[in-house]
Design brief:
By secondary structure, the chain is mostly helical.
């Protein structure tokens, strides 16, 4: 097969996989116990859940967009 017929090369797929892993890590960082009607949990407003995790997810989505836009080298 001629490699020029494929839209993506191996590096594109690796970048997509890394981006997806970073997004999954961001969602894991967002997870945790929530508050209930009986008990208030102040951890829902921690810096990890409202600052770090969304930035990690955004970085993952940006890297996935770059992986799709990246043109394979000939």
């Amino acid at each position: 097969m001629d490699k020029r017929n494929f839209a993506f090369d191996r590096v594109n797929y690796i970048l997509l996989a890394v981006g997806m892993a970073v997004v999954i890590i961001g969602f894991i960082l967002m997870s945790g116990d929530g508050s209930t009607e009986a008990a208030y949990n102040p951890d829902i407003f921690s810096a990890r859940r409202i600052k770090v995790a969304p930035v990690v997810c955004l970085a993952g989505f940006v890297s996935m967009i770059y992986a799709v836009i990246r043109k394979p080298k000939n």
